[in-house]
Specification:
about 450 residues, alpha/beta, Alpha-Beta Plaits, Phenylalanine Hydroxylase, 4-stranded mixed beta sheet, 16 strands, monooxygenase, oxidoreductase, phenylalanine 4-monooxygenase activity, ACT-like_dom_sf, metal-binding
Amino acid sequence: MISRRATCLGIGGINPRRFLASVALGRGEEHKKVLTTPAIGVAFTLHDNPGSLVEALNIFSRRGISLSHVSNRCSPLEPYKAMFHVHFRGGWESKETRDVLEELRRLTLDGQLFKIAAPDVPWFPRHISDLDQFSKSTLDAGDQLESDHPGFTDPEYRARREEIAKIASEYRGADGPVPQIEYTEQEISTWGCIWDKLTKLYPNHACKEHNNALQELTDAGIYGPRRIPQLSELSEFVSARTGFQFRPVTGLLSGRDFLNALAFRVFFSTQYIRHHSAPMYTPEPDVIHELLGHAPMFLNPDFADFTQYIGLASLGASDDVIKKLAACYWFSVEFGLLIDFKGAVKAYGAGVLSSYGELLHATSPTNPDISIKPWDPEEAAHQEYPITTMQPVYFAAKSMEDAKIQMKAYCDRVNRPFHCVYDAESKSVFTDVDVYTRPVGMKYRPVDLSSREPL
């Protein structure tokens, strides 16, 4: 929809388990206290001798101060010196910090300590509640239709879209379950028409992960030929399996906002359905695209992790990185393919699974109009794609697990001045260094991380 486990996941070249251990995480209140304390940074110079860094870090350890990030840079003209950057949980005015700095100063080569400047990055949500403001920033209002939309001249359809959009715009995460939509007989008939056509293709053209999940959802009574899923029921079912939940949105979000939400295992979904006069066509995502195409795959743990990796990598990322991550999302979550054990091509991307024509187009073994490339996020990030026609290029992975492993490796290489960790218990994201967030879109001069303020 980009303009479109009870574990912690880390991004940015950092092992999440080691990171969490390094900040001395227990569970409960102490766990929350450590993570919510800002990670401030100090730079200092030591002799480049074995054990010199350990001695410095022990100063923090003896006082029970948690470290979040440690790095070093050598002096190019003075090989016996090493500059270390250490970020730790604390405050500059606290007695513990002052005591640590005083002892650390005596250990340094020149008696100098420097405060590390907080990097300047685009604003990003830190807690799941921050996603509430995304409902105010859609690229369209949901009820605003273009002149080529099948429902443009239908006042009844436009009024219905406005009614559904209002429900989505007023919803907040703290409100509890998403309000249910009482779909009309005409809307249910439109859903049923497409359900019948697509589900006949799924056994031979959709991946087994999607087919198995759709069967589970159908057996649970959430899906059916005359049953348009409700986001509240879907969220409860999927969240129990992989932690993903679904929230309503009035229309298209910006690529940044949509990807940011995935970091918190939240998928923003529309609740309206396409116009009944053209059931096989829609110029925009609707419940058929979201709930027949996207939603079942979120029951698969590998797919859920895959998607969250993209989301975490998008937090505080530059516009260029967002563009590349959006392209990776397009060629995977939207139009991704898998190769099954027989070598046949199967669909897992929602743009394929929710379109009768695209599903046949993408998975035909004899289609001369398409190119299917091995899944490679690096290549996908730079691949051009059309948004109004069937795709000429697809990427196929060996398995969902393999696709996830490659995506995580790509996200780990994203150029960003901090690493972040998602804590599923508190539904929060924490950074290993303190960062300054600016309004998205504001021009700024990047902070030089080598510039330091003396302490």
